[in-house]
UniProtKB/TrEMBL annotation:
Enzyme class label: transferase
Domain named DAGKc: residues: 1-134
Gene3D superfamilies, per database record: 2.60.200.40, Probable inorganic polyphosphate/atp-NAD kinase, domain 1
Name of the protein: Diacylglycerol kinase
Coiled coil region boundaries: none
GO molecular function: ATP-dependent diacylglycerol kinase activity
Keyword vocabulary terms for this entry: ATP-binding, Kinase, Lipid biosynthesis, Lipid metabolism, Nucleotide-binding, Phospholipid biosynthesis, Phospholipid metabolism, Transferase
Source species of the chain: Streptomyces aureus
Lineage: Bacteria, Bacillati, Actinomycetota, Actinomycetes, Kitasatosporales
Length: 296
């Protein structure tokens, strides 16, 4: 592997932590003997074009510095190639890094870990999800949680995580289950009233919410968590359990495993790694060993 690697930086991640994190991460990598080039795009499209150019030119690794959005953008450049992806997680949620057991909000430690892993060739092949051509690493969300995202993204005030807390309260007030048609592999077809459906390659979203707690990023299958028709009171009881993954034992929750899933529902947006994909229906496929990931 070449010693020339690329730092792929989101300067706005975590209220500016992305820009601040690039320097200690780069210092740790250079101290390990790597030649580091930094790529910062003018916008997401430009950044992705630059990242793909670096991969095409043969960079030894693409190291995403930012949050889950930046890691997801980097996946679009490296998925299906032999270029490994490293993550310096300094965003708000950092679920992709959490799923991989990587340091969070400690760019010097993460940079040192990535450098050590690259020098020791500790690079793993992991499954990735693909939804209508878009790659993702952790969870594709739909239903109540995606409506919270929709509302939070429309809000201009307050900033940070608090606006999503307010969005949860607002969505609970308007809450009602949604009719879903879920096709697993080539069958069976499930027609259910569901609060939400989450398709997990990784375990968590939303900064540690273990919605698909049993998901394994190496088994070639998704864990599909379906929270069925339930009252607001039941949802409020089940929701806090998601942080430990114990919600999966509740009678209103079912889990299915499949390589491919088709989701259809009216007026529901799909979000993958926290990024909006568009309205359902969506076809989602687990692609085994599609990503090379630098890690412990």
């Amino acid at each position: 592997m070449t010693s020339e690697i690329t730092l792929f930086v989101n300067p706005t991640a975590g209220r500016g932590r992305g820009a601040q994190a690039a320097q200690p991460a780069a210092s740790a990598l250079r101290a390990a003997g790597f030649s580091v080039r930094t790529v910062v795009g003018e916008d997401a499209d430009d950044a992705l074009t630059r990242a793909r150019a670096a991969v095409h030119a043969g960079t030894g690794a693409l190291i995403a510095v930012g949050g889950d959005g930046m890691a997801n953008l980097a996946l679009q450049a490296v998925a299906g190639t032999r270029t490994p992806l490293g993550v310096i997680a300094v965003g708000t949620g950092n679920d992709f890094a959490r799923s991989l057991g990587l340091p969070v909000r400690d760019p010097a430690a993460a940079g040192a870990l990535v450098a050590d892993a690259l020098k020791g060739s500790r690079i793993r092949e992991l499954d990735l999800g693909r939804a209508d051509g878009h790659w993702f690493g952790t969870v594709l969300a739909s239903g109540f949680d995606s409506r919270v995202n929709d509302r939070g993204n429309r809000m201009r005030w307050p900033g940070g995580r608090f606006k999503y807390d307010l969005a949860i309260v607002a969505e609970l007030a308007a809450f009602k289950p949604v009719p879903y048609r879920i096709t697993l592999d080539d069958g069976p077809v499930l027609e259910v009233e569901a609060t939400l459906v989450a398709v997990g390659n990784g375990t968590s979203y939303g900064g540690g919410m273990k919605i698909c707690a049993g998901a394994d990023m190496t088994d070639g299958l998704f864990d599909i968590t379906v929270v069925g028709d339930c009252s607001r009171a039941t949802l409020l009881k089940v929701f806090p359990r998601v942080y430990k993954g114990t919600h999966l034992d509740h009678p209103v929750v079912t889990v299915h495993r499949a390589k491919k899933v088709e989701l259809a529902a009216e007026e529901i947006t799909g979000y993958a790694d926290g990024e909006p994909l568009g309205s359902l229906p969506l076809t989602v496929e687990c692609v085994p060993q599609a990503g090379l990931i630098v890690g412990p």
